[in-house]
Amino acid sequence: MRRAFQDQGRALPADLTSAINRAGYYPSLVCDVVESAVAGDDVVSHLVHQETTFDQDTVRRHVTVLVVTRRRLVIAHADDFAEPGSPATATATTETIPLGAVRGVMVTHVVADPANFTSGTHSRDITLTLGWGAVSRLDLVPAQCSDPECTADHGLEGTVASDDISLRISAAADGEAAVDAALAFARVLSGSIGGEAIAP
Question: Which of 22, 45, 71, 88 would be a feasible disulfide site paired with 82, CB 3.0-4.6 Å?
Answer without folding.
Answer: 88
